[in-house]
Amino acid sequence: MGTPALECPDCGKFTTDFANPEQLSDCVSLWQRRLFLRDWEIGVRLARHHELNASEWSGQINYNTERREALIDLLDPADARPNKTFPHDVERTLVHELLHIHLAPMGAQVGTPEQVAEEQAICALSRALVELARQIPEAEEKTAA
Question: Which 3 state secondary structure label does DSSP give 53?
């Protein structure tokens, strides 16, 4: 967890690489509020690559929509592979996994065109939301709320 942040080639800013569990917890709370998921109990942990269901994934989510509970595993930055096109970004992955909660009731089956379209939409939305949030200082966001 103590690895340095990497500079994003797209925006020149540093990708979020949490120095401690409190920072990760604060980020989860912030995005739960932003995405209107405060009524969900969401656990998040950094996971090693061998703990994820597929080695190329940077995150995964398991949820129960009836109980409004979810567990998100985010790839530990120590296991991230260098990639200039898609730099490892824990915050973007977190938002990606949280967005799956909103689309869960649609029930797209794995491997179907619907699931592929859902995944593409979530990728685009998570990237846009995180990039936008990084452009707006927190103080401005609070006054707009």
Answer: coil
